[in-house]
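Deliverable D5.2: sample structural annotation.
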Amino acid sequence: MLSTIANLKLYLGSTSASDAYLTTILTAASSAIAKFCGRDFESTSYREQYDGDGSSELHVDNYPIISVSMLSLGKISAFEIINTSSDAYNASVSVNSTSMVLVVSGGANAGSSTLTLATYTSMTTLIAAIAALNKGWGVLANTSLSAWSATELLPMSGSSCFNRYASVYLPDTPETDFSEDAKAGIIKLWGHYPVGFQNITVKYTGGYATIPPDLEQICIELAKSYLDSASQNAALQSESIGGYSYSAKTTSGIPDSLRGRLGAWRRYT
């Protein structure tokens, strides 16, 4: 959240709303601001992929930059995987932010196997887990990358690997010759970012450890506008009398006066 219950209460002066309800309101206001501005503001670690455009500058989504832990130009095959089940008719591999999913279609080995990446601290342990499935899977490892954690694998949609090898990728060797314009969220390369689709991988911490006071004030005023709307029943979704309860609609509208003040916080384009 971009503010605290304590600070919201100080601004309101007095309120009969519960802390739980105020938390819901502040969360809604913070979310609306992030969506309007096209960026998150609270300090968080990110791994993002970008298209290389041949320039020497990369603008990350969530700035200011606090630190960059990895910048990689391109990708490299961590291993190649194949399924040779004799009675199947298809097989595929996919990777998302948390898991690798292996699917066999048809035959005795039919089904889906999900391997949680965080469980495997190296390519070696992940490849061993694939073999242990005993469902027709085979792997050709790149032994030079065996120490990489499975959580570093790059996302890939379902790639067919039935009776043919499909590559599963890691970011290529991290770069060291770059600098940062932390405030603007720019990573400057001593050279040029190669042209390509989703070929640049960046791991960084971005946002504010302490939310700037003027941004926090906008969030507080937006939260108050939500509360005012609720008091007029504009945001009332449900209410019951016996054992009193109250439910508010999710509010995302931002008054024009606050939109103008948020202009300076919108993500660079």
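Annotation notes: The first helix runs from residue 5 to 12. The longest strand covers residues 196-206.
The annotation will be released with the project's public dataset once the embargo ends.
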